[in-house]
């Protein structure tokens, strides 16, 4: 049997050997128009830059804040292009521009759409395949991950060579029989494990190398952190754990590099390498916090940059607050009025706090205390706004519980991103309520509730652009999830 399978495999390789190699080209440009506010752009942009298309392709990612039960994502995307991105249209404005791929999702109407220039055009069945690759993730409100999955699938199918087409693969699999399929599946799983392991190993080595090179500096920083400072003492507690975990990371580094290529084909060993990567990233973040703590509390040279990193999360929250307050469903709520007032108040106080700290009118500990208090004020106001928004949208206790769960989980996940600050490293995630996580959680919860209300809705594909599209006939379609 092994000899037969070997002959079949060699035959297939010979066939594939005459086919030209496909070009690998990362996106020439990435544009994100996140009107629904559900995407975590640092993760999204980093992932999209690593995706290779077969031809140089511009990628546009669009989120639409539609209404439950509507089916107008196609026309909404076209309207956005005409109003804000005319470069997405062909010269005669009747097609999508060449070299362009647009991925769109409406988390409220629960629609996903794919659109492309004529030179990137794929069949309707392939468009449906791209959309289908996202739906399990979108149903779980994993908007960023679903978008990444959709663009990856698109990169695989757009300009796909004949020898990678489904028809050719099916024919080849028939020739090889079920045994070849079994071998191919097993080989695919092992190859995927090796790919994951290589990525984890690369990330782990980058973090571990950074921590190792700065180990002496980190130790020196820890030695000069003033222990009488409340924040200094809390960070020093973290440093004691830091050294223990660094030794653990060293062991994982040696273990991960001792694995052979064959070893890394198994899922258990991939988990070891993943653990190494996660621990190295955690240590790389903590040594920066230790450095910032020493610099800030002692007012050493460069304290201005350390201070900017501490206030950056709150500043980002304040920048994202106005669009949240402008949502149609937020208008007229007392919590909206309270948040608007707090936004103005905190913006002014943050500027004054920075000025007071710079002129030494306030100590580092007092400045961090004030910053913590401002975060707590915003968190409490967002909690009240969350309750008001949920009460307004939901109709039953079950719907309310669904939205509370969605908003709570995204809040916890988003707060972990603040671990690179002094406050974020020494306090529980429950102290923070990032505005970004409010947006994502609310959209996710609302989408899940809307899905429960309309389970009987059709999930068929739609390729028209509605009456507002006029004679526009660009390639694209959408479907429900």
What does this structure look like?
- The chain is an alpha/beta fold.
- It has helices at residues 2-17, 41-49, 73-84, 124-139, 143-157, 166-213, 215-223, 230-258, 267-297, 303-325, 334-358, 364-393, 397-415, 422-426, 435-453; strands spanning 29-34, 58-63, 100-106, 111-116, 475-480.
- Strands 1-2-3-4-5 form a five-stranded mixed sheet, sandwiched between helices.
- Helix 6 crosses helix 8 (230-258), helix 6 (166-213) packs parallel to helix 9 (267-297) and helix 9 crosses helix 10 (303-325).
Q: How far apart are the first and last residues' alpha carbons, in Å?
A: 44 Å
Question: Kindly state the mean pLDDT as a whole number?
Answer: 88
* C-alpha geometry: globular
Low-confidence stretches: 167-172
Helix and strand string, N-terminal first?
Answer: HEHEHEEHHHHHHHHHHHHE
The main sheet comes to: 5 strands, mixed
Supply the helix-strand structural class: alpha/beta
Strand order of the largest sheet: 1-2-3-4-5
Share of helix, binned: 55-70%
Question: Count of helical segments?
Answer: 15
Radius of gyration: 26 Å
Total E-strand runs: 5
What oligomeric state do these chains adopt? single chain
Percent of residues in beta strands: 5-15%
